[in-house]
């Protein structure tokens, strides 16, 4: 038990007791402080912190009742409500011990004490002190999380008129159970809006379940959404609840709902109308209670006209529609978002704080951002990783590099390096910064394209 007892304060009017305790405990504690005069307790408490305090219950004024010990216990706890105090006396009994514990003492020992028992008591008290610290830490973290959650639209940044309109709609619809359809291009933050609606709803204490409908194959659709019984098909090795059952009591977010084929749309509509699901392999229906939020980047109204999306399903899911503007329609927010992502990725990659040059911000404001916020986020992340200076210049963003006009300078310049650089820029811009797609079009591997990007300082 090496130095595990931390910092100990011992207060007793018997000098022999103090010396004996210090000799015993200094082998096991980081520091042992002894004090004969209890009137120095306020000074000691104001000028130090202790892992455990050993306090005599009886001083010169009153030999046996323990009143002085209770008085000084109160003073200690007033100074530090989380203090771990062990009371010691030669005249202890059960009644006094119970009273001491009720008054806030952690434990109670009799003197003369048994060395092993005293050390064991102190060790347990130290662990209790550590648990107090952990509880306080968790409480602080919980409060911070609650404060963050209660901040309006904490994850959605925007001060433009278009985003203020989005916030207004969220405020109006969140407190209801109305179905919401979020429309917007890829990368505009549809899932963030869905989560914001859930967090401000009456269901916020319950689960938010997100499902990417575009990633679910037709064969897995019913199993994923409605669940299955053990043995219902080859890989069904146990009973499994579907996403609808899991989301009961909370919110179900169906992302990219426009990607569903007509047969699956019919099955989904049936569940939404009946508010029941039946697991594959079961004849028993299960009631569901969900708040439905859907999203898509597809032109669903055109799809209805083309008979590729059911009109009755559209009516069922769009009690309230919310249109998320693309980033090019909220250019006022580009600087705000860019500075936010710079801070995020500097912290993530342990980089010194960086700033964005005014010339870079100016070019960013003119760029159309076809990939929306997601493209901006990825561009900032790459710039933070690759840039060497503390100021992000236009050259740190390959898509902001001055492009050549059609058949003029580009056609006249036959330098192979310049031609290669321009072709790479064109491919990367065409695919909104998606390296995999750009590499495929160029006939390169991702690694080869990255090497060329490095070569040309892109």
TrEMBL record:
The keyword Ion transport does not apply. It comes from the Bacteria. SUPFAM superfamilies: CheY-like, Homeodomain-like, P-loop containing nucleoside triphosphate hydrolases. The modification 4-aspartylphosphate is found at residue 56. InterPro entries: AAA+_ATPase, AAA_lid_NorR, CheY-like_superfamily, Homeodomain-like_sf, HTH_Fis, P-loop_NTPase, Sig_transdc_resp-reg_receiver, Sigma_54_int. Residues 7-126 form the Response regulatory domain. The keyword Transcription regulation applies. Keywords: ATP-binding, Nucleotide-binding, Phosphoprotein, Transcription, Transcription regulation. Pfam families: AAA_lid_14, HTH_8, Response_reg, Sigma54_activat. Residues 156-385 form the Sigma-54 factor interaction domain. One of its GO terms (molecular function) is sequence-specific DNA binding. GO terms for biological process: phosphorelay signal transduction system; regulation of DNA-templated transcription. This is Sigma-54-dependent Fis family transcriptional regulator.
